[in-house]
Amino acid sequence: MKDGRTSAGSGTKNEEFFAFGKNVLSPAAGTVVAVEGSRPDGVPGKIDREAEPEGNFVVLDLGSNVWAFFLHLRSGSVAVKPGQKVKAGDVLAQVGSSGRGLEPSLHIHLQDASEAGRGTAGLSSSRTS
Question: What's the CATH fold of domain 20-115?
Fold first, then answer.
C-alpha cells in the first residue's frame, strides 16, 4: 500500500495495482507438486463467480508433511514445473488477479495435505495486496 491505497489511478486496471506483477519468491527449499498458470486475470472490482476460486497457483512440498499454496497468480507467469526443486528466494511466479477476488493479491497458506482443502489442519494464513 502507498498512502493507504492498493493502487494508483482509478484502480480499474490490474497494472495500476502496486502488487500486480511483483515476483512471488519461494520462502524455503521444496519441491513443486502442482501448478496452474493459464487461467485469465480478472477485472478489478468484479468477482467472476464462474472462475476457479484459487485462480493460477503453485503448490510446494516443504517436507515434514507441510505444503505451501500460492494462489491468484498472474496469468502466464508461473516459472516452475511439477517435480522441480526450488530453494528459498527462487521466483515461482508473479502476483496476479486470477480466480475470485476484487483486486490483484497473493494468497499464501500452509496445510498438511497436497490438495487444497484436503488437509486436517490449516497451519497459517496470509494475504497481501
Answer: Glucose Permease (Domain IIA) (2.70.70)
